[in-house]
What we know:
5 helices, 9-stranded mixed sheet, single chain, D-amino Acid Aminotransferase, Chain A, domain 2, 9 strands, alpha/beta, globular
Amino acid sequence: MDARAAAGVAVISAPDERWAxxxxxxxxxxxxxxxxxxxxxxxxxxxxxxxxxxxxxxxTSSNAWIVDADGRVRTRALSNAILHxxxxxxxxxxxxxxxxxxxxxxxxLAEAKAAREAFLTGASNAAVPVIAIDGCAIGAGxxxxxxxxxxxxxxxxxxxx
Length: 161
């Protein structure tokens, strides 16, 4: 996955049909599995789940991030709507080293599609560039400089430990 991750992946959107306490790691993963399977059948790596208000919650096994039009790095704030990822927490701590403005706020699917960059994080996926959502190219349709820098910083920090 490392070479593919550096090159970027595609995601699709899917309705978030999970129970309300998404922050609790449980064995109730059928909605995640079905959405991930739909992504694979569509030729995508991941599915980003969309809540009832139209906001991206997270991926089936990842946290969702964008770099918005103003250059802010955005990811949803911690709540029971998302699983509190360890890689997410690590990137939030590392981002100031790159003088990045990080905003923990929800974003819509439309904002994600219009973003300069998008990426996902997970325990086995450190800042994986998202180059397309639902077939719509994100930014230039290739890994962006902020995602690439965050990925390198995270992997460098991980190698030191």
